[in-house]
Backbone:
């Protein structure tokens, strides 16, 4: 059986491993403490925050087939939110998601999805891969000097900038990948002692430096501790991503308070996460990077239009190419 190393254990890396596991001996490498990537959940007892992806839609048959068993297993559930669109603090549209295209969330947290999917996979967490070395096979070096050897193929499932930093110059798609851009974003996480009087569950906002607000504690099967997420606009994040965390928290609390027309300073838990590579700029992309000469391949949401479904589809497309051209 050939040996494959997959770098990154977000949905793209995990899906690739699941789709190829019968043909290959696969090891995933993940720099964080656990799997999930941008579908992670931040816990700050008793509060839970899905501080990356908020929900996902299912628009292709391939993803539908993948998602159905997750619904049956109770790992995801439909989120029938009361959704609004706001022009700063004025409601301009209202939608009842119970009557719309289904939106899904992991239960009881967003990271339940990847944890469940990864339960039988071989994963080395807390392992940041820094360099690849080529001999007759590939070796991977982590940032603590450990070496992992004898991989026939290496697949990356990480954002594009990190791909070009990591893969050697011999990889034939370097120049194409260098052109692909991602937007940054901040996720402000606020926990409150009491339920706030907000009469929607999720909101998309224009004309503000806050672009999204959701009441995480109102997603299905959450606990009752009132947890609110506010995401910054991409423009604000691009200008402030390196800025002092306290300043950004204070600014975004004020901005979110203005949008909601209520003072959020009473939050007992306040934190922020800055995502340097949050969302694909070009949501229409559908590209494949399979270098059969170097035995290097790439997947990730940004290869297939971004978002959760794009992460899965990039893995699905890559697994198909492997089956057609390699196994
Ligand atoms: C704030 C925010 C809100 C979002 N909202 C939505 C939404 O509502 N709906 C939706 O569909 N999508 C949303 N998205 C996008 C969605 O989260 C992503 O499209 C999807 O999760 C990407 O999965 P992925 O596997 O391609 O990448 P990732 O989840 O980013 O996985 C990459 C993994 O690689 C690891 N890694 C990186 N470099 C290395 C290295 N050198 N060595 C080892 N490991 C490494 C990272 O730690 C990470 O775990 C949102 C994203 C963000 C950030």
Residues:
């Amino acid at each position: 059986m050939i040996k494959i190393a997959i770098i990154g254990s977000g949905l793209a890396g995990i899906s690739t491993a699941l789709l190829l596991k019968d043909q290959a001996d696969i090891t995933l490498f993940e720099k964080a403490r656990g799997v999930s990537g941008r579908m992670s959940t931040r816990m700050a007892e008793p509060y839970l925050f899905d501080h990356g992806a908020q929900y996902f839609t299912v628009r292709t048959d391939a993803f539908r087939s993948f998602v159905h068993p997750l619904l049956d297993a109770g790992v995801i559930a439909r989120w029938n939110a009361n959704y609004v669109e706001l022009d700063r603090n004025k409601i301009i549209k209202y939608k009842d998601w119970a009557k719309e295209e289904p939106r899904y969330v992991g239960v009881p947290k967003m990271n339940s999805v990847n944890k469940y999917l990864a339960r039988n996979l071989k994963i080395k967490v807390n392992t940041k891969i820094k360099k690849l070395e080529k001999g007759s096979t590939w070796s991977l070096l982590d940032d603590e000097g450990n070496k992992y050897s004898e991989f026939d193929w290496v697949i990356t499932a990480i954002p594009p900038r990190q791909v070009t930093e990591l893969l050697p110059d011999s990889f034939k798609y370097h120049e194409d990948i260098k052109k692909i851009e991602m937007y940054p974003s901040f996720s402000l996480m606020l926990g409150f002692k009491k339920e706030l009087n907000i009469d929607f569950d999720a909101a998309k906002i224009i004309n503000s430096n806050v672009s999204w607000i959701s009441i995480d504690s109102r997603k299905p099967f959450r606990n009752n501790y009132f947890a609110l997420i506010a995401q910054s606009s991409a423009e604000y994040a691009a200008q402030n991503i390196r800025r002092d965390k306290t300043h950004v928290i204070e600014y975004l609390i004020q901005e979110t308070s203005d949008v909601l027309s209520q003072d959020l300073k009473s939050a007992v838990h306040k934190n922020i996460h800055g995502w340097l590579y949050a969302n694909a700029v070009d949501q229409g992309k559908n590209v494949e990077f399979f270098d059969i000469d170097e035995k290097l391949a790439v997947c990730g949401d940004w290869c297939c239009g971004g978002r959760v479904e794009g992460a899965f589809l990039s893995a699905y497309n890559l697994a198909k190419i492997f089956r057609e051209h390699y196994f």
User: Anything to note?
Assistant: The mean pLDDT is 97. Residues 40-110+182-280 form a domain with the Polyamine Oxidase; Chain A, domain 2 fold (CATH 3.90.660.10). The helical segments are 11-20, 61-72, 112-117, 160-166, 174-178, 234-240, 245-260, 307-325. The chain has two domains: 1-35+118-180+283-327, 40-110+182-280.
